[in-house]
Write a structure and sequence with these properties.
single chain; 345 residues; alpha+beta; Alpha-Beta Plaits; four-stranded mixed sheet
């Protein structure tokens, strides 16, 4: 058990699916050999099959408080990195005669294969974006599954990491994680995953995905900091709730569920009585707590519309970005970062 627990809240009512968070993470952490197909941060369209494909059906975690061994996603289910004819188009002198196209075997799945498809029927079709990282769970199934004790939970901040010196690539962690956010590096033969940007955190800098987000979707901080947004959104207002709480790992990434627009009735008029996004679907993602979360959000929005003061709305609007990060607001440009020396001879 960690002494303190870092956490993240993502407001799904503000995510526009721009993938800035995804690229920020990719550029910083997954550029080495063997990591080409890894997306430690992903943003998928819901309802959708996600990455890895149909991950919610792969088992793992502690449903009914009992460990589920789960299964390991295949590389194809994650969606492999695609190769394009960049050299031919950009450097081969054929730019006016050819175009970018996939080389080799044509893929049949990728991390955003079903982007923006959603569900429902016109004019009441719907979708929303779901960003995901490792949940840095309070009760990590990956940690309990590893026979090498290579999965470690930091006692001071609760961040879950893989000790690559101890890892032997058995991949029990990949099967046990119900969120399927652990990858296997075929070159290094080790498991790899989101590290919650702990080198930045140690210097007082927020996670790259959170700091780069143009929509101010992500809040960062300690669960027990009562003056910071995480505590207020999760414990005080209870509008930020975990994804698939039934998995039993007690995740520390929380979501403000999407409200969605009103439906159109048969006459083409707005029907405020029925939500566009079925509440039953949201319950399948976030559990029964989603009903209270949505009710609180609607009540506070109405209060603000009528001219009242709402602490919750002020928190979610996030007028000042520094207030979102629980003190992790240091400018990374002010830090002299030390690059690890290469061990290659």
């Amino acid at each position: 058990m960690a002494e303190r627990q870092l956490a993240m809240v993502m407001d799904l009512n503000k995510c526009i699916g721009c993938q800035t968070c995804t690229i920020a993470c990719k550029q910083l952490w997954t550029r080495d050999e063997g990591m080409e197909y890894m997306w430690w941060n992903s943003v998928n369209t819901q309802p959708g099959r996600g990455t890895p494909k149909d991950w919610e059906k792969m088992g793992g975690g502690f449903p009914n408080k009992k460990p589920d061994p789960g299964r390991i996603p295949t590389r194809a289910e994650f969606g492999d990195a695609w190769e394009y004819n960049h050299k031919e188009v950009f450097y081969g002198g054929k730019g006016d005669k050819t175009h970018l196209q996939i080389q080799g075997q044509k893929p049949d799945w990728g991390p955003n294969w079903d982007e923006d498809q959603g569900a429902g029927e016109y004019p009441n079709s719907y979708y929303f974006y779901l960003p995901r990282i490792c949940n840095h769970c309070t009760h990590p199934a990956c940690l309990e599954a590893c026979p090498r004790n290579a999965i470690e939970k930091n006692a001071e901040n609760g961040i879950v990491t893989v000790n690559e010196d101890s890892c032997r690539g058995y991949r029990f962690c990949m099967a046990a994680c119900p969120y399927k956010k652990i990858y296997f590096n075929q070159v290094a033969k080790v498991a790899q995953k989101c590290i919650f940007c702990f080198p930045r955190i140690e210097k007082g800098v927020a996670n790259a995905c959170a700091r780069q987000c143009p929509g101010r979707v992500r809040f960062v901080g300690y669960r027990d900091d009562q003056n910071a947004p995480i505590y207020k959104l999760v414990d005080k207002w209870k509008v930020a709730i975990p994804l698939h709480p039934e998995y039993g790992t007690e995740p520390n990434v929380f979501y403000v569920p999407p409200l969605g627009p009103a439906r159109f009735d048969e006459a083409g008029d707005l029907d405020e009585s029925t939500p566009r996004i079925p509440t039953e679907y949201l319950e399948s993602l976030f559990g029964p707590a989603v009903h209270d979360s949505l009710a609180i959000l609607k009540a506070e929005m109405e209060k603000a519309r009528e001219g009242g003061k709402s602490e919750l709305m002020d928190l979610l609007i996030a007028y000042k970005w520094k207030d979102m990060f629980g003190g992790f607001d240091r400018d990374p440009a002010s830090i002299e970062w030390v690059k690890a020396e290469s061990t290659e001879g």
